């Protein structure tokens, strides 16, 4: 018998984010069994999140291998917070289907996965539509990973997703959304607009917004890297100013740093100085690198909370709109990363250096971010033609004189 759904949302869970990013942060001190209030005094946010999922029967007290315990352990095993949140949402979509159809997820067969895949939707605004090939493939991959983990713990005998037909790589590439990339002139205009506004207003929100724009378009960092950074992550290495940050693919404790150059440091230092001015001693309190600001009229909202990805997106689009950029409404934080990589590769910066800045393991991934046609302009085909030309015995035919055939064409 399966458990009844924990809630009855109006929209399918495929399109619902159940918990904020902070609630899905890993808790290294938590053991797999600590997934409920009864199993220990320390709250476990991942266990609490799993308890909200539908169609998962409650675990027996003390059961180390209950479905909820293992689901929480599976989420903890992922390499990053972003992956945990994504897998959680995708699994929630499948379990919502199970709850709505009265299906025990441990007894699911391929036909059930096929039916779920065919019924998938995404909500855009107030409308629902079928998901893209990339979204469908991602959801199936997440659920497959969950079943593989359950299989490895002898909780289920099968992975019903294994033989399900998935979108091809070509379909995924064709449907994948790419964040708009800015030209060099547009990037400079955006940076000038944000900093110029900060100089004119000289307020903490304006300088913070200018710092956000500078971090996006001078570092190629993923948005989670600097929204997750603290003031203590600013430092120096070999005489250069750097920002330490969490690095994707380097494990839970993986860290890396990026160099901060003058243009960025000027804006960032101005922001931190204005922010410190809020305190009587003129020293910023320890905490996140980028924070919300005090509400001008509501003393119950003192600010100081860490910026989220949504905050950064809103700041970027607002500044781009002020700059008059035509793609303002479609920009995302990933636009900064794409723009930096495109700008560097388009200006003959070696691929290896750009790959290292972007933190990509494979140079082909870095190439995939490049939105210029510089590959045509710098194609080695011209070099090949020049190299072979010195060894060829025939060449372009000279202009004909009357009816006399050209040499080599008799």
Automatic annotation (TrEMBL):
Residues 20-41 have a biased composition (Low complexity). It comes from the Bacteria. CDD domains: DNA_BRE_C. The keyword DNA-binding applies. Residues 65-151 form the Core-binding (CB) domain. Keywords: DNA recombination, DNA-binding. InterPro entries: CB (IPR044068), DNA_brk_join_enz (IPR011010), Integrase-like_cat_sf (IPR013762), Integrase_catalytic (IPR002104), Integrase_recombinase_N (IPR010998), Tyrosine_recombinase_XerCD (IPR050090). SUPFAM superfamilies: DNA breaking-rejoining enzymes. It holds the Pfam family Phage_integrase. Residues 1-42, 285-305 are annotated as: Disordered. Residues 177-383 form the Tyr recombinase domain. This is Tyrosine-type recombinase/integrase. It comes from Actinomadura napierensis. The lineage of its organism: Bacteria, Bacillati, Actinomycetota, Actinomycetes, Streptosporangiales.
């Amino acid at each position: 018998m399966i458990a009844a759904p924990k809630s009855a949302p109006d929209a399918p869970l495929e399109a619902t984010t159940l918990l904020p990013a902070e609630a899905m942060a890993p808790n290294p001190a938590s053991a797999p069994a600590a997934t409920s209030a009864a199993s220990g005094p320390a709250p476990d946010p991942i266990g609490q999140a799993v308890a909200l999922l539908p169609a998962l029967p409650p675990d027996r007290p003390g059961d180390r291998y209950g479905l909820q315990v293992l689901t929480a352990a599976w989420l903890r095993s992922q390499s990053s917070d972003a992956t945990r949140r994504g897998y959680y949402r995708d699994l929630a979509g499948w379990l919502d289907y199970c709850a709505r159809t009265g299906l025990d997820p441990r007894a699911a067969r391929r036909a059930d996965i096929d039916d779920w895949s065919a019924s998938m939707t995404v909500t855009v605004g107030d409308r629902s539509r079928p998901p893209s090939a990339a979204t469908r493939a991602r959801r199936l991959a997440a659920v497959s990973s969950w079943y593989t983990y359950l299989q490895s713990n002898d909780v289920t005998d099968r992975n019903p997703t294994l033989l399900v037909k998935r979108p091809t790589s070509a379909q995924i590439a064709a449907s994948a959304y790419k964040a708009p990339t800015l030209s060099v002139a547009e990037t400079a205009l955006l940076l000038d607009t944000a900093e110029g506004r900060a100089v004119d207003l000289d307020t903490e929100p304006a300088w913070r917004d200018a710092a956000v724009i500078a971090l996006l378009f001078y570092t190629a960092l993923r948005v989670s890297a600097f929204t997750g950074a603290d003031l203590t992550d600013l430092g120096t290495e070999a005489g250069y100013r750097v920002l330490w940050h969490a690095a994707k693919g380097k494990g839970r404790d993986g860290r890396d740093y990026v160099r901060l150059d003058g243009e960025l440091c000027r804006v960032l230092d101005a922001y931190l100085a204005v922010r410190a001015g809020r305190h009587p001693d003129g020293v910023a309190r320890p905490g996140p690198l980028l924070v919300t600001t005090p509400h001008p009229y509501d003393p119950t909202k003192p600010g100081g909370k860490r910026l989220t990805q949504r905050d950064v997106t809103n700041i970027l689009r607002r500044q781009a709109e002020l700059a008059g950029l035509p793609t303002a409404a479609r920009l995302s934080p990933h636009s900064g990363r794409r723009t930096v990589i495109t700008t560097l590769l388009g200006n003959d910066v070696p691929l290896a250096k750009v790959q290292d800045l972007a933190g990509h393991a494979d140079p082909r991934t870095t190439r995939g971010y490049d939105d210029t046609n510089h590959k045509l302009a710098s194609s080695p085909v011209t070099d090949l033609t020049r190299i072979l030309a010195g060894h060829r015995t025939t060449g372009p035919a000279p202009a004909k004189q009357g009816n006399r055939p050209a040499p080599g064409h008799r």
